[in-house]
Design a protein that fits this description.
This protein is an alpha/beta fold. It has 3 domains: 3-135 and 304-339, Rossmann fold, CATH 3.40.50.720; 139-300, 2-Layer Sandwich (Dihydrodipicolinate Reductase, domain 2), CATH 3.30.360; 351-433, Alpha-Beta Plaits, CATH 3.30.70. The protein has helices spanning 16-27, 29-36, 65-70, 85-96, 106-123, 139-146, 161-173, 177-186, 195-198, 201-215, 234-242, 304-320, 367-377, 408-419, and strands at 3-12, 38-46, 60-62, 76-79, 100-103, 127-128, 152-158, 225-226, 245-256, 259-270, 282-289, 293-300, 352-362, 382-387, 396-403, 406-407, 429-433. The strands form 2 sheets. Strands 7, 8, 9, 10, 11, 12, 13, 14, 15, 16 and 17 form an 11-stranded mixed sheet that branches. A 6-stranded parallel sheet has the order 3-2-1-4-5-6, with helices on both faces. The mean pLDDT is 94.
Length: 438
């Protein structure tokens, strides 16, 4: 039996996720009400344009999203307009009017979350954002609540489906980056301007949110090291596979002795790891807790109804606790606001990793020994060294080196010295390597 008093929701944005949210709320109204203990009613929609895939019936639609934030009948505002300018103003106005907020906007939370949470705490309202990371995968709830007993040691995620699709196609079909990107755009996986996806910015937004929840640190997006996949060549994908690895764009957050590592970049992962076999546009997040050990969360990281699944889960959570004392609600970032840590986020120079290096060297005696000496002088040990056959009519040979774990600043110094050798042609290709061992 559900409560006679429905919870009234205003949806702002009727695009891919907004239409999916409305349609699933309507289709599954009975089961959602049974779980929430009350009916969830869409009172008003704020959208600049209609969506042919989303017949809204007699629901009131306004072209002014701020009217939704001002509507006194609405208890929960669902922000699905995207961007950070209008969305920030909309969310803050809704909070100021005493409304709870559900959002799928990772950029908004990563960049302005501290301000938004402070405003929400002052007004005693909830801000929920499960759909901001990994689409339909309930990974925020898993870390924030399911792993609450654990001290999280590290997490690593494939959290951008566009990049994962491109790298999968490059590996399986031996295609160049530019060719696959065009297909991704044609399929709707990548925007006309794909910068946010292929340069790692989208994944960095998501990683910052996950890291804050995992480690209890304030949001500080500007400290995430971000590197895209645009320079990955098919030959590196092929060599990685020959060595027993696969290249994935990973977001990595790790608690180490000196602080927190936050980085997004292409990464060689052993092919036997489950996360190395996450292909296409799918997402996955691997979390290592001290009590639980490693857990993997896998599923669609985008899409209309998968993302709507997470949005509605947040609406249900908020509806259940509408009348609860704010102190008894789950904290926004898993930890109580006054318990957030000031542990530093490390510079990429201080990060420790293993490395894949591809060098184009003159095919003559003594070159490899000079390269090995440079690495040795810096205390960098070599795990594997492979010299490939030169291409026809070429006097340069590709040399592949896998190093053991070392500090980033040392590998930077080594690369600079190697590139300065007369016997080396062009830039050294460097890709980080992670074992992700449980």
């Amino acid at each position: 039996m559900t409560d006679l008093n429905p919870v009234r929701v205003g949806i702002c944005g009727l695009g891919t996720v907004g239409s999916g949210t409305f349609n699933v709320l309507k289709r599954n109204a009975e089961v959602i009400a049974a779980r929430a203990g009350c009916q969830i009613v869409v009172e008003q929609i704020g959208a600049r344009r209609d969506n042919a895939n989303c017949p809204t019936g007699d629901v009131d639609i306004t072209r002014d999203v701020f009217a939704v934030a001002e509507n006194p009948n609405i208890q929960i505002l669902v922000e699905l307009i995207g961007g950070t300018t209008t969305a920030r103003e909309l969310v803050l106005r809704a909070i100021n009017n005493g409304k709870h907020v559900v959002t799928a906007n990772k950029a908004l939370i990563a960049q302005y979350g501290n301000e938004i949470f402070a405003a929400a705490e002052k007004r005693g309202v909830s801000v929920a954002f499960e759909a901001a990371v990994a689409g339909g995968i309930p990974v925020i709830k898993a870390i924030r609540e399911g792993l609450a007993a654990n001290r999280i040691e590290w997490l690593a995620g494939i959290i951008n489906g566009t990049s994962n699709f491109i790298l999968t196609e490059m590996r399986e079909k031996k295609r160049p980056f530019a060719d696959v990107l065009k297909e991704a755009q044609a399929l709707g996986y990548a925007e006309a301007d794909p910068t946010f996806d292929v340069e790692g910015i989208d994944a960095s937004h998501k990683l910052m949110i996950l890291a804050s929840i995992a480690f209890g640190i304030p949001l500080q997006f500007d400290k995430v090291y971000t590197e895209g996949i645009t320079r990955i060549a098919p030959i590196d994908v092929e060599y990685a596979e020959q060595l027993g690895y696969r290249i994935k764009s990973l977001g990595i957050a790790s608690r180490v002795e000196k602080g927190i590592e936050l980085r997004v970049h292409p990464t060689l992962i052993p092919e036997k790891r489950l996360i190395a076999n996450v292909n296409g546009v799918m997402n996955a997040v691997l979390v290592k807790g001290d009590a639980m050990g490693p857990t993997l969360y896998y599923g669609p990281g985008a899409g209309s109804e998968p993302t709507a699944s997470s949005v509605i889960a947040d609406i249900v959570d908020v509806a259940r606790t509408l009348n609860a004392d704010p102190k008894h609600r789950v904290p926004y970032l898993a930890f109580q606001q006054n318990s957030l840590s000031d542990v530093p986020v490390l510079s990429i120079d201080d990060v420790v990793s293993s490395y894949y290096l591809r060098i184009s060297a003159h095919d003559k005696p003594g070159v490899l020994s000079r390269v090995a000496q440079i690495l040795s002088d810096l205390g960098i040990s070599i795990e594997a060294l492979i010299q490939k056959e030169p291409a026809p009519n070429q006097d340069h040979v590709p040399v592949i080196i896998l190093t053991n774990r070392t500090q980033e600043r040392l590998i930077d110094s080594a690369i600079a010295q190697i590139e300065a050798l007369d016997s080396i042609d062009g830039a050294v290709v460097r890709i980080r390597v992670e074992s992700l061992a449980g």
